Amino acid sequence: LVDAFLDPDARLLVTDSASSGTPMVRVAHEALISNWERAKQYVENNADALKIRRRVEERYRRWLALQETGPGAGGSRLATRIRARFRREPGLLTDVDIADGRRLLTEHRSDTEPHLVRYIERSVADERRRRSRVVRVLSLVVIVVTALAAIAFRQRNIAESESAIANRTTRFMVDMFATADPSKSRGATITVRELLDQGAKTIGSAPDLRHAPRIRAELQTTIGQAYMGLGLYPAAERQLAQARADEQGISTPAATRVRTLVASGTTLYLDGDDAGAQRFLRAAVDLARRTLRP
Q1: What angle separates helix 47-69 from helix 95-108, to the nearest 10 degrees?
Q2: What is the tens place of the pLDDT at every residue in 48-75?
């Protein structure tokens, strides 16, 4: 049938070739379609598809030209590789053209030339690859930002907690030494030993400290160091032992635990217990090396 239409006497169809060299057959004159009702109806029903096909063909030719000339050079090799991972391959379909290309393959795949089918599919695959990488990068950014926000929030909570503990410890010590004020002690002379004994007793019985082991441990370490300074080593060790016990059961900053261990070791050393002192001081050094920055 095609050969009959190509016959010079008929001249209904003529041969031609695409830019890729693929043989083509086309209508000899547009009047054949405009006066052929069935062909006219077909063209009208597929006008959009024909427009899309022509546009895709134009994009395809431009892409072929870019393949022949090669991409332009610029920037370092690393920068070029990074851009290539997130940019589209030059000359491929983009955005609306990709949507139209997909429609063309869905509705008219069998009527579309193989080279255009491959071109559209390559464009779709490139867009999918680019979007996938962008999504992965954005997901990583979200994860990093979330992690940094969580760390900042945790650090803020730690700072607020440390500030509250420091304020509570300061108030306790101020109140303890306020009892030495003659106006409050009714003129009686109060020794430092008595002040420390009263403070130690208060720590053990105060209701507000019963459920605050962190603050209690801080106070016990402070009073233990004061006892040690007076040479009252047994009393100092009792306070420091309680502080170590409280710190074991809660989340305590490493610096605080090191301070308590050093005070415990120093107390035992001054009291003549070299073996016990060595145990606590070695533990303090090991903990500091593991957790504290130089």
Answers
A1: 120
A2: 888 888 888 898 988 888 887 765 545 5
Q: How would you classify the pairing of strands 23-27 and 13-17?
A: antiparallel
| Per-residue tokens: 103 | 């429609």
The reported pTM is 0.45
State how far Cα 281 lies from the chain centre: 40
Which residues in 37-89 belong to E strands, given as ranges?
none
Helical packing angle, 254-270 and 213-229, nearest 10°: 30
Calpha distance 258→201 (Å, rounded): 25
Cβ-contact 264, 239 below 8 angstroms: no
For residue 187, the model assigns a pLDDT of 47
Alpha carbon 262 to chain centroid, angstroms: 39
- Reference 60, options 106, 107, 14, 104; nearest CA is 104
pLDDT tens for 142-197 read 666 666 555 555 556 555 566 666 666 666 665 665 555 555 545 455 577 887 88
Instruction: Collapse the DSSP code of 66 into the 3-class scheme (helix H, G, I; strand E, B; otherwise coil) and give the result.
Output: helix
Q: Specify whether the CB–CB gap between 277 and 266 falls below 8 A.
A: yes
Q: What is the distance between the alpha carbons of residues 119 and 97, in angstroms, rounded to a whole number? A: 12
